[in-house]
Design brief:
Layout (H helix, E strand, L loop, with lengths): L8 H18 L6 H5 L3 H18 L18 H11 L5 H4 L6 H11 L2 H13 L4 E4 L15 E5 L2 E12 L6 E7 L3 H4 L5 E7 L5 E6 L16 E12 L14 H37 L1 E2 L2 E2 L4 H33 L8 H26 L1 H4 L5 H10 L7 H13 L12 H11 L6 H6 L1
Parallel strand pairs: 1-4
Antiparallel strand pairs: 2-3, 3-7, 4-5, 6-7, 8-9
Helix pairs in contact: 1-4, 4-9, 4-10, 6-7, 6-9, 9-10, 9-11, 10-11, 11-13, 11-14
């Protein structure tokens, strides 16, 4: 079946509107970050962005990631990918479109796995943007291998008792809802992928101890309680009702990994397309500088090395875009046929490590062509560069995704004592196959 990434003219018009809206209304907000971080800044930011969100809703582009019967627009992954490519140009844009991580992924998780009561209590407010949520999975001793997660939820009567230590729980310090991945059974008895469940924990529940937001390379001066933080949390005898498990009790017990795949697969498409939007912004700065900066007898655009940077960046970005759209198209076809996103694990894993590589390298070239200016905060490139480094780590480090791709591809092959392309063996087979057409003596000599 041929790949088809084409969308209807009405949607193309929406994308054109989005490009202008993001460029003219949202990107300028970046320059006022000091105002948003000052006392009362978040209230001012909310006041500034509220009419922008209203305009997005008037355009019919709010929370496009969920089906209409769940309050979204029912866009497939190709359309969502094309939207996220535009939103990726600015970190503020996804939230203004009701499509920001981790809230969008958590809403999707509740949409596909939550009970009717869980959807009513938690999913609809998330869709409306009335509060924030957190996906609390990573632990200091368990990141790339989630089967090593040690946080437990033990049944005690009609409650779960949760104990454990998490970190990099994004937005936990400002979230109303924490979705906590917990070990609810012995992996030796039920297998590692049936031993975990997701449990819904209101942030104010007794025993939820948010120790701090961990400063990162991207935001080294981050203060606990600001949006975008990555919290370290200790769950100390946290008690929640049994039906707090996503999917209800007992049906949701042991479904943690299955639900995680439903959540993370689409999320990686959106990440990769947002990286392309960020790459394009850096690429635009690279090309503008190449035509503007005069050095050693000509503008930089006349230098062969700069031309190679431009050509390589464009080719890398196009390859990343086509790989990502092909993965999105594959996921749409799987969804239509009722099949699981895990059948696209190779396509999803490829875009994760390739897209992160392209993002990092294009921004690096853009910094290099700007010289000392690119290294300063007078341009957004230094912030983009620091943020880009994280792309090779979150949602699984590149190395894990490369292993996934290699293992899936190797399943298509079988070991053999004699190489399949061994010429003498192939020649003998060909002589037998075409003997009646060949000269008898030549056949004998062969």
């Amino acid at each position: 079946m041929a790949w088809d990434f084409q969308t209807e003219p009405d949607f193309e018009a929406k994308l054109a509107w989005m490009r202008t809206f993001v460029r003219e209304q949202i990107i300028p907000l970046e320059t006022l970050e000091d105002h948003w971080r000052a006392p009362g800044g978040q209230e001012r930011f909310a006041a500034v962005t509220a009419p922008l969100k209203d305009e997005v809703k008037r355009q019919g582009l709010w929370a496009a990631h969920l089906p209409p019967d769940m309050g979204g627009l029912g866009f497939g992954q190709v359309k969502l990918g094309l939207m996220h490519e535009i939103l990726g140009a600015c970190a503020y844009a996804p939230a203004i479109f009701g499509n920001n991580a981790p809230d969008s992924g958590n809403a999707e998780l509740l949409a596909v796995g939550g009970t009717p009561e869980q959807k009513e209590r938690w999913m609809q407010p998330l869709l409306d943007g009335r509060f924030r949520s957190c996906f609390s999975m990573t632990e200091p001793g368990a990141g790339a291998d989630p089967t090593l997660l040690s946080t437990t939820a033990v049944r005690d009567g009609d409650e779960w008792v949760i104990n454990g230590h998490k970190w990099f729980s994004s937005n936990a310090s400002i979230a109303e809802l924490l979705i906590v991945m917990c070990r609810t059974a012995d992996p030796d008895e039920v297998g590692p992928y049936k031993a975990f469940s997701m449990i819904l924990v209101p942030r104010g529940t007794a025993g939820v101890n948010i120790l701090r937001d961990v400063p990162t390379m991207s935001h080294p001066d981050h203060r606990t309680g600001e949006p975008g933080g990555h919290a370290e949390i200790v769950y100390d005898n946290v008690r929640v009702p049994l039906d707090s498990v996503v999917g209800g009790f007992p049906d949701g017990v042991g479904q943690g990994f299955a639900l995680a795949q439903k959540r993370l697969g689409p999320g990686r498409i959106h990440h990769a397309m947002r990286w392309l939007g960020q790459s394009q912004r850096a690429f635009d700065m690279l090309c503008e500088r190449a035509l503007s900066r005069y050095s050693h007898g000509s503008v930089l655009a006349d230098k062969q090395m700069i031309q190679q940077w431009i050509a390589d960046s464009y080719a890398d970005m196009q390859a990343a875009r086509l790989l990502t759209l092909q993965a999105a198209w594959t996921m749409d076809r799987l969804h239509e046929s009722g099949r699981h996103y895990s059948d696209a694990r190779t396509e999803i894993a490829v875009i994760k490590f390739w897209g992160a590589k392209v993002l990092y390298e294009v921004i690096d070239r853009a910094i290099q062509i700007h010289g000392s200016l690119g290294y300063t905060t007078d341009l957004p490139l230094e912030q983009m560069y620091r943020s880009a480094r994280a792309a090779r780590i979150y949602d699984g480090p590149d190395e894990v995704h490369r292993v996934t791709v290699a293992r899936q591809l190797l399943k298509r092959y079988r070991p053999t004592d004699v190489p399949t392309e061994h010429v003498p063996t192939r020649r003998r087979a060909a002589l037998d196959k075409f003997a009646e057409y060949l000269d008898h003596e030549a056949v004998a000599a062969g």
